[in-house]
Amino acid sequence: MRIDNIDIYHLPKWLEGIFEDIESLCHKTLKKESEAYRKILNQTDDLLEKYRVISTIVDGDKINESLELSVEEAEALSRFCHLESDRKDMETIQIYLMGAKHMWELMELLKLAK
Q1: What is the pLDDT of residues 67-87, one digit of tens each?
Q2: 65: left (phi over 0), alpha (psi -120 to 50) or beta
């Protein structure tokens, strides 16, 4: 198998496992080391608890009729979306940094880094 034949929709099972492990390590690291990340998680949990409509929307529950949101619910949904965007940004950066660290370690192992 060549690397250019691999895409995110057709990953080999062994590679899926590696990515799941990396994602898990990323979440553990951020929860342990980042106060900002923990705040985001707490705030999103609070919003999901307080506004069931957000849970219905983000969990992909079947919606059979139009939803009428109050201004408060709309503001909460907007806040939730911003928090989720911030959370994903932090996770993306953390995964990038983890990859850079692993590449540096590999280069040192191969005697390519000085």
Answers
A1: 889 999 999 999 999 999 999
A2: beta
